[in-house]
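Chapter summary example.
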Amino acid sequence: MPNSREVIATKDAPQAIGPYSQAIKAAGMVFVSGQVAIDPATGNVISGGIAEQTERVLKNLEAILRAAGTGLEKVVKTNVYLKNMSEFAAMNEVYGKFWKSAPPARATVEVARLPKDVLVEIDVIALV
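The structure predicted for these 128 residues follows.
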């Protein structure tokens, strides 16, 4: 159905803690809400710096995409929100390991504050 939308939820990523879904699948695409460095097993922000947090965020995104029947290779757009743009290089190094070829389009911005005072948040749009 062209106008249908499906809520995507998985226990393999942090649960939504407000009036939003982990992702919505619609029109052959998946729109994934911003993810932060929360360990889905504990519900707590992981320890470590920008590299560790970026890896956890991307693993959370990967789990949600998998639950939607797609994967990181189908991501067409990402938005990266950094607490401190001086950590761009370290974030980018980890990010690049998840997209070795044909990376998606991306915007990266520095923001004043992120949920739970994490260092990075990333959201994605992917094809199904």
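To summarize the output: The two ends are 14 Å apart (CA to CA).
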